[in-house]
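Input:
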Amino acid sequence: MQPPRATASSTLPVLPLDLEQTGSFRTATFAMG
Amino acid sequence: MDGVIRTRVGYCGGTTVSPTYQRIGDHSETVEVDYDPQVLTYDDLLAAFFAGHDPRVRSYSTQYRSAVFYRTTEEAAAAGRALERLQLSAGLVHTSVEPLSQFWLAEDYHQKFRLRSHRGVFAQFRPLMPDERAFTDSTAAARLNGWLDGCGSAGQVERELPLTGLSEAMQDEVRAFAGRRERAGRLVR
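Output:
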């Protein structure tokens, strides 16, 4: 089970790709040596 | 890279419960990338993954190996295709493609290492976050960490750096680092 994610806060700097604006996302996982 | 929402480092691939850096057990050090599939594809990430290290070098430790941890059969197929293409062009590649079991988040001090290492930028940016978890999960922190490591295109920096909450002077500090890899002809975007 994945650990819970933090909830986006209005006090955070806002970037075009912040989760609350993007709405959905996927996750990829790598080990890079 | 445009389309990356956030990055977090951790441990996975092994069986040890609640691993830490000191007690990593049979896990590997990994990076988890949250991305917007409207902007970035899994194939794009695979290309960046293979360009970001040398998978031809065999690792003799489980902690530092080359691996793709897939979540879906589509991701497994894409990773397999990318691996085959690389093997045709580069020869033997020591990258493992395996299903993700569980990702364990690494300790706070490992998250956004480049950003933490720049005392001035970190001292100004960190108080903008309510807690360590918000800092770790922040898109802005991920961008700053990448820029300070020399990543990022000029366009991305100009578009997004002013949105990080940093002062003009501190933004200039970041600009001095950002884009170095692109200018050197290495990993771009």
